[in-house]
Amino acid sequence: MPIVKHEEFISAPVEVVFDLARSVDIHIKTTGKSKEIAIGGVTEGLLEEGDMVTWEATHFGIRQRLTAKIISMDKPNEFVDIMVRGAFHSFRHTHQFFEIDGGTKMVDIFDYRSPFGFIGVLADKWFLEKYMATFIRNRARELKKFAEEKGDE
Q1: Which among 2, 73, 74, 131 counts the fewest CB atoms within 10 Å?
Q2: What is the pTM of this model?
Q3: Number of domains in the chain
Q4: Half-sphere CA count of 87, side-chain side, radius 13 A
């Protein structure tokens, strides 16, 4: 099972970063390349423990749907979502937030298992793990822009 980990320092209070990270509206704005939209469950506002959201997005030129559920939340330190339906065999995405140096260290830990057994393992090695790392890094950097602009207001 590949594990993708990304850390991003954001010059904004931990509460602001935490809320932006669980905002459906901001998620849509920070995933522009894959054209993500929320089509089921909670489709706007802030996600809470127990909430589910179904995303529709384009990855590898294919329109896909994925339903995730928030399984735990410790405001403003951590929340965890898992895939309940979608293209992966499974995934668990842990979002952590640490108040540090007048800002927030945001940590994403994406632990996933590809479908299709051995073929999925090869896909991970050839391209999928790198694709997921880039996706998570780009989303974190876009979220950073929103958080830091909000702090400048």
Answers
A1: 74
A2: 0.92
A3: 1
A4: 12
> Would you say how long the chain is, in residues?
153
- In this structure, how many other beta carbons lie within 10 angstroms of the beta carbon of residue 145? 12
Q: What is the per-residue pLDDT across 24-67, written as a single tens digit (0 to 9) for each?
A: 999 999 998 899 999 999 999 999 999 999 999 998 888 999 99
CATH of the domain at 92: 3.30.530.20
E-only strand ranges, the chain: 3-10, 37-41, 52-59, 62-74, 78-85, 90-100, 103-113
Domain of residue 110: give its range: 3-152
- Distance (Å, whole) CA 78 – CA 40: 24
Q: State the Cα torsion 48-138-11-16 to the nearest 10°.
A: -20
Tokens of 9: 């320092």
